[in-house]
Design brief:
- The longest helix has 37 residues.
- 77% of the residues lie in helices and 0% in strands.
- The protein is an all-alpha fold.
- It has a single domain, classed as MetI-like (MetI-like fold, Orthogonal Bundle), CATH 1.10.3720.10.
- The chain is elongated and about 75 Å long.
Length: 287
């Protein structure tokens, strides 16, 4: 293959990657818009019960059917997007903030504080993640807030490790030495220089974690340790409909499809974001 042909092939690959990134970003924005305006998009009241319409099969009036209480499943799936997606994003944001703060402090200060914080993270990493989350959620009791707290407790060490390694690399950088000599304080160095320079890997990790966190949050709700009825949340809805799977399978199809589509979109977006922000990937594409 000639150099010109290789250049055309690589250029086409980069163009496809750019298009894929913007398409996936558009899908993520669409999901967030559905979650934000879920109440306005629901064709029926998601909590209105009508036992005369119990377990109706999908139809023109109810595209996803109804549940055992006669509630419209399409409306509940749409409203479930709000609780499921926003709870997951809040979870990822909390985990990222706590883990990054711990990692930056450990990497910047070093010494005994670094050793102490890393040994604490080792203790959390030693436990099987979901088992530990089940134990924490069981102690705290049911509820979406307690499920988020339980998952935060087990998920921050990964971000702490990433932030620490990146901070260690930045701490010895010549430009930071120059800023110190110019009289820049520690807080200003961290906020203006260190955090912006380590944000890339952390943000990419967070984007890739959205799908995983959503599955774990839905799993806790499915086991009765997350969102509690009558709250419209995808994991809780699947748990409520599991006993009717043979009689009325449509009661789990809607929330299951919501989880599948959302996790797939965020995972693909995370991959595209990593390819876009990873310098090594960009160098390979340009070679």
């Amino acid at each position: 293959m000639s150099r010109t042909t290789r250049g055309h092939v690589k250029g086409a690959a980069r163009a496809r990657a750019r298009v894929a990134f913007w398409v996936l970003l558009g899908l993520v924005v669409a999901l967030l818009a559905v979650a934000a305006f879920a109440r306005q998009l629901c064709p029926y009241d998601p909590y209105a019960q009508d036992l005369r319409a119990s377990l109706l099969a999908p139809s023109a009036a109810h595209p996803l059917g109804t549940d055992r209480y006669g509630r419209d499943l399409l409306s509940r799936v749409i409203l479930g997007a709000q609780s499921s997606i926003f709870s997951t994003l809040a979870l990822v944001a909390l985990v990222m903030a706590i883990g990054t703060a711990v990692g930056v402090v450990a990497g910047w200060r070093g010494g005994w504080l670094d050793a102490l914080l890393m040994r604490v993270s080792d203790v959390f990493l030693a436990f099987p993640g979901l088992v530990f989350a089940l134990a924490v959620a069981g102690v705290l009791g049911g509820g979406i807030q307690n499920a988020v707290i339980a998952l935060v407790a087990i998920s921050w060490p990964k971000y702490a490790r990433i932030a620490r390694s990146q901070t260690l690399a930045q701490r010895a950088a010549p430009y930071l030495q120059a800023e110190r000599m110019a009289g820049c304080g520690t807080a200003a160095l961290l906020v203006r220089h260190v955090l912006p320079n380590i944000a890339g890997p952390i943000v990419v990790t967070a984007a890739l974690d959205v799908g995983t966190m959503m599955m774990e949050l839905a799993g806790l709700s499915y086991l009765g340790l997350g969102a509690q009825p009558p709250m419209a949340e995808w994991g809780s809805m699947m748990s409520d409909g599991r006993s009717m799977l043979q009689l009325a399978p449509w009661v789990v199809v809607g929330p299951g499809a919501g989880i599948f589509v959302t996790v797939a979109i965020f995972n693909l977006f995370g991959d595209a974001l990593r390819d876009r922000m990873d310098p090594a990937t960009q160098r390979r594409a340009a070679a």
